[in-house]
């Protein structure tokens, strides 16, 4: 099985971004709004037949969000501090053991992120898991953000694998839905204990940690 991982929030711990906003004198809750706004605008561009890099959207949105606030430094410096913080996020605690277990079980591992491959490279290098992945893929090379079908098809072509033989792992139900509609198996990583939205295609697997997913896939093979 080719296991395809979303990266931002699925593998990286975005919960620490609130502190980056607090560092510059901005409300912590803006971190979630900022990340959600990046996705919104990336999706909108893809729907309109265009595309833009994650970091470009994120940087410009930050400038607009922070400009009206009373910060402890200039807007430009605040933007750089937050963008740097995004690049230095750690892995969730379950990621390294889960990835190792999946690889030991013989699964091929790749990423497919709406961000850049450089972010994935640095995240995995710091977390000591880069060697477990045969490829780090980005929608920058697909011409469309997930959940557009073209993004998943690009991953299939890049890995010389049929979509039906691929499993997407993500915390985002919209990503699960997009991959399922493209013909992939899916695993929803439900870290928050929330309900899966009924209007999206149901995932093949629902797990709370990556080791749990590794165990589930071992059971499917038995």
Overall number of strands: 6
Helix/strand/pairing class, anyone? alpha/beta
The secondary-structure element order is EHHHHHEHEHEHEEH
At CATH level 3, the topology of the largest domain is: Rossmann fold
Tally of structural domains = 2
Q: What does the oligomeric state look like here?
A: single chain
Helix content: 40-55%
Number of discrete helical segments? 9
Low-pLDDT windows of residues: none
Major sheet: arrangement of strands: 3-2-1-4-5-6
Query: Superfamily at the CATH H level of the largest domain?
Result: HAD superfamily/HAD-like
Give a concise summary:
This protein is α/β, with parallel strands linked by helices. Helices cover 47% and strands 12% of the residues.
Description of the molecule:
- Helix content is 47%, strand content 12%.
- By secondary structure, it is an alpha/beta fold.
- It has a 6-stranded parallel beta sheet, with helices on both faces.
- It is globular, with a radius of gyration of 17 Å.
- The two termini are 14 Å apart.
- 38% of the residues are buried.
- The mean pLDDT is 97.
């Amino acid at each position: 099985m080719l296991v395809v991982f979303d990266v931002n929030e699925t593998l990286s711990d975005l919960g620490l971004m609130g502190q980056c906003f607090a560092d510059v004198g901005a409300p912590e809750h803006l971190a979630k709004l900022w990340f959600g706004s990046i996705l919104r605008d990336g999706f909108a561009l893809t729907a309109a037949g265009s595309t833009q890099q994650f970091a470009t959207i994120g940087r410009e949105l930050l400038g607009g969000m922070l400009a009206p606030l009373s910060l402890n430094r200039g807007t430009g410096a605040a933007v750089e501090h937050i963008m740097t913080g995004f690049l230095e996020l750690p892995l969730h605690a379950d990621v390294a053991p889960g990835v190792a277990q999946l690889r030991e079980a013989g699964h091929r591992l790749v990423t497919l992120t709406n961000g850049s491959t450089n972010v994935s490279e640095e995240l995995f290098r710091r977390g000591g898991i880069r060697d477990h992945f045969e490829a780090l893929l980005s929608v920058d090379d697909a011409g469309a953000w997930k959940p557009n079908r073209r993004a998943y098809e690009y991953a299939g072509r890049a890995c010389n694998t049929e979509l039906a033989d691929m499993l997407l792992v993500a915390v985002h139900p919209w990503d699960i839905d997009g991959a399922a509609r493209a013909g992939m198996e899916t695993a929803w990583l439900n870290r928050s204990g929330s309900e899966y939205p009924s209007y999206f295609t149901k995932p093949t697997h629902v797990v709370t940690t990556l080791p749990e997913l590794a165990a589930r896939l071992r059971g499917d093979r038995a």
